[in-house]
Specification:
single chain, 119 residues, mainly alpha, 6 helices, flat
Length: 119
Amino acid sequence: MDIDEYVIHECDRTMEIFIRYKELMLDKHQNVCVLSYEQMASDFPTWLETLLSYCELNITTTLKNKLIAENEQSRPVREDIQSHVRQGKAGDYMNKLKPETIRYLDEKFSPVLDAFGYK
């Protein structure tokens, strides 16, 4: 199975998981903070600040800078598919999936993508 066939094969199961997250978190609780992996991977300082603010946590500038530095150090420079910690570039799926697969997934997942802040 190639990657396009695999994601299409798995999309119904994945959709069920996202629907469950939506029902249990977003539909039942009005004050849920939704932050994406893409935000964390592409702009960790802003993601961290948003999380700390939402949780009403005040940490020292020293600790904040340490967390930011540790995040930067843990990010691989290049992709290693054998590694647990991956490169994690937002939008990298566009380089790996066919355009028709992306369109199919966007349409299929649009109800939950909107709910989790993906437009």
